[in-house]
């Protein structure tokens, strides 16, 4: 496991599917300042696995926004989609271990079979396992690839061995979680379930992509919003399964609008590009997300 005292490699990894908003600015600035404070490196990565929704114009706009905020990063920027071959090789390896199965279920079928959503499930209702029981997936049908969570836990040595896996939280989860957070195998089976590793359209799914590429880039510190805290046990489990180092995690508060709603890319009025065009300065952006003026931040 990476230690909090290792030379920091921080990253900001947006998906170029829209314009950045104040929440992204807060996340990027928090990662940047942590890297600066530690004398480390700040990386920008484009998480463009969802190629259908990603656009080059958004990637350009993201870079302009970040430069406007005063951030710099080493070139070239890594685009996750360029790593498809390596991602697929890892899935093949997990399949060789018998931990992966094909799934032809539609979202509606999963929803109907799963019933009421469970609190704390990072990807909506856990998959009910319909295709896990099939002896073979029809090869002429587009299918997703899922991780068999129970088998994965057994492969790692069973529930006790998985409980001994943990990650270090140096920020705060949504319920104040901090420090060493052990995995909970029962929660992984009952609330997370058989996560998708490769989507039906062939794209590598978020959880695996982020784990492999953070590992590939030598990221030591993952700074991101608390909305992704519930995904972290999945990432820790995938790190164990794929032999990928575990970074330190710093989950931060979310930036909300005046109604307390988390910002989303669809709230165009709060995009950084619009704010820039309307004359906002980098200091205005910092102050609207509760950051001290540049150069005066603690630590
Ligand atoms: N690409 C993810 C997003 O845009 C963030 C990746 C991560 O921090 O895990 O939400």
From TrEMBL:
Gene3D superfamilies: HUPs (3.40.50.620). Keywords: Aminoacyl-tRNA synthetase, ATP-binding, Ligase, Metal-binding, Nucleotide-binding, Protein biosynthesis, Zinc. GO terms for biological process: glutamyl-tRNA aminoacylation. This is Glutamate--tRNA ligase. It comes from the Bacteria. InterPro entries: aa-tRNA-synth_I_CS, Glu/Gln-tRNA-synth, Glu/Gln-tRNA-synth_Ib_cat-dom, GluQ/Sye, Rossmann-like_a/b/a_fold. The lineage of its organism: Bacteria, Pseudomonadati, Pseudomonadota, Alphaproteobacteria, Hyphomicrobiales. It comes from Methyloligella halotolerans. Its EC number is 6.1.1.17. GO terms for molecular function: ATP binding; glutamate-tRNA ligase activity.
């Amino acid at each position: 496991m990476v230690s909090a005292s290792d030379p920091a490699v921080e990253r900001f990894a947006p998906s170029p599917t829209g314009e950045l908003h104040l929440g992204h600015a807060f996340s990027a600035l928090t990662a940047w300042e942590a890297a600066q404070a530690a004398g480390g490196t700040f990386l920008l990565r484009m998480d463009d696995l969802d190629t259908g929704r990603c656009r080059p114009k958004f990637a350009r706009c993201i870079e302009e926004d970040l430069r406007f905020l005063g951030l710099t990063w080493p070139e070239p920027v890594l685009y996750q989609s360029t790593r498809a071959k390596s991602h697929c090789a890892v899935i093949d390896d997990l399949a060789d271990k018998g931990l992966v199965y094909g799934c032809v279920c539609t979202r509606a079928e999963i929803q109907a079979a799963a019933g009421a959503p469970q609190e704390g499930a990072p990807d909506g209702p856990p998959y009910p396992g319909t295709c896990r029981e099939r002896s073979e997936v029809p090869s002429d049908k587009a299918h997703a690839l899922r991780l068999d969570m129970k088998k994965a836990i057994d492969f790692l040595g069973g529930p006790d061995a998985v409980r001994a896996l943990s990650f270090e939280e140096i920020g705060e989860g949504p319920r104040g979680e901090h420090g060493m957070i052990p995995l909970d195998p029962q929660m992984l089976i009952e609330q997370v379930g058989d996560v998708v590793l490769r989507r039906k359209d062939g794209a590598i799914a978020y959880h695996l992509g982020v784990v492999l590429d953070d590992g590939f880039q030598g990221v030591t510190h993952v700074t991101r919003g608390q909305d992704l805290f519930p995904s972290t046990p999945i990432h820790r489990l995938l790190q164990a399964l794929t032999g990928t180092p575990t970074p330190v995690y710093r989950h931060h508060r979310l930036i909300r609008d005046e109604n307390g709603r988390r910002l989303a890319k669809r709230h165009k009025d709060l995009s950084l590009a619009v704010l820039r065009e309307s004359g906002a300065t980098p200091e205005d952006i910092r102050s609207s997300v509760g950051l001290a003026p540049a150069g005066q931040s603690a630590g």
